[in-house]
Amino acid sequence: MKRFQIVALVLLVVAAIACCFLSVGILTKLQSGFLSLLSPLSRSGHVVQSSLGSLGKDLMTLDQLQSEYDRLLLENLQLRAENNGLRDLKEENDHLRTTLGYSERSSFRLIPAVVLGHDAEAWWNKIKINRGSKDGVAVDMPVITDRGLVGKTTAVSDDMTEVVLITDENCKVASKVEGTKEQGICAGVRAPAGELELSFLNKLADLQPGQKVYTAGVSGGIFPSGIALGTVKNFHARELDGEATLEPAADLGNLEEVFVVTGAK
Amino acid sequence: MKTGLLFILLLLLIPLVVVVQDLLPPLLPAQERILLLPMLFCFGAMALPLLPALLYALIVGIIQGLILLQVQSGQVELGLVGPIVFYFGWAIFLQMASDATRGIRWEIHAVASGMVTLSLLTGEFLILCAKRGSFPLDSIVLLRITIPAAAALLIAPLLYLLLRSLVSFQTETGLAKLKSPSLDV
């Protein structure tokens, strides 16, 4: 081995050792930089994937297109009617709250985002979305859909963010069960199969399949109260506590658009 | 010079491969994912000479570490140490395998891809078990380890052919390692 090669090998080993002792701050910055590097590629990949996915839809016959158009027209009319009804209800609700002297319950400030991809890792359940710090997204912000909680933001770059899903073992959510005083901690499992586990319940709790579970919104926590988490599938008592298996409210396997909760209005 | 070109090419492919593996749909029945990065690493570790191969292993290790990085309450659950040591170890082993077979061979690349994927997923699982204090070994966990490894074994020859065709653009003589007769498939 030549002297140059020996020097290069020593430098390489020193660099590797130095990398092993990087601080959390530097690692987070490196991760953010890496996400920024991936961002244009992920966006282009998502466009290609969407185009390929819509290829089948583009090949519909004229009859199919006509029936799809009719269905969408009808759905649009239904939604408009529902929307009008809801607007009336909101006004009535606000009026009643004001009358009763309650402070206006604030709704969330949301940033819409498109899901760019699902992480290919086996033991972590994460997605990437097309919003970042430029849009006001920061670490540890809740991510939801219209159906319920999705997860929380973990790594943020300028224009891309990683979101850890509620089915990940590391995403723990304080939860409460509808119609009961039961509260527990909801989390995913190591190899997520799409279900959630709600632990630390009273072992004598009388939970029934179909009961809804919401975020409890503990003080100092990330998740606000009242966001749908899932429904109870089954409940079993353990030695010290009770545990329920939940079906997530949001369809986590087919996420396309999500909302990042940046705060209250 | 030729080694430099191959190194740069393999380096540029890393972010592309990371994005593509994220876009690939999960396999049934336990939502297993196909990992392309270990296959690319195996090619680099076997096609490059020792020092560039180790440098490549360091870079892939850092990238893998950044992909896995999760900060929980200000603490890093899995840092860069594990991935860097893992890829360094495999780079040295694959260099020896490459030397023993007088150059990179598609069969060795396929087997190595499967083994690197298998050991990567097993290692991650065991480290998480040690860190989180539970050992939930069930059929889903086994499927999540074995199916991506089997997929790597099957897909690696395609990646090998693709990379080899890219490499052949570089020069008429090719790289010292890639020039060997054993490369012919």
Oligomer: heterodimer
Average pLDDT of chain B? 86
Describe the strand arrangement of the main beta sheet of chain A, using strand numbers: 1-2-5-4-3-12
**In percent, how much strand structure appears in the residues of chain B?**
under 5%
Shape of chain A, please? globular
Q: Output the radius of gyration of chain A.
A: 23 Å
Q: What characterizes the major β-sheet of chain B? A: 2 strands, antiparallel
Largest interface: A-B, 44 and 53 residues
Structural class of chain A: alpha+beta
The percent range for strand residues of chain A is 25-35%
Provide the succession of SSEs of chain B. HHHEEHHH
CATH C-level category of chain A: Mainly Beta
Q: Report low-confidence residues of chain A grouped into runs of 5 or more.
A: 102-106
Shape of chain B: globular
Distance between the termini of chain A: 67 Å
Q: Helical stretch count of chain A? A: 4
Count of domains of chain B: 1
The name of the CATH architecture of chain A is Beta Barrel
Distance separating the two termini of chain B: 25 Å
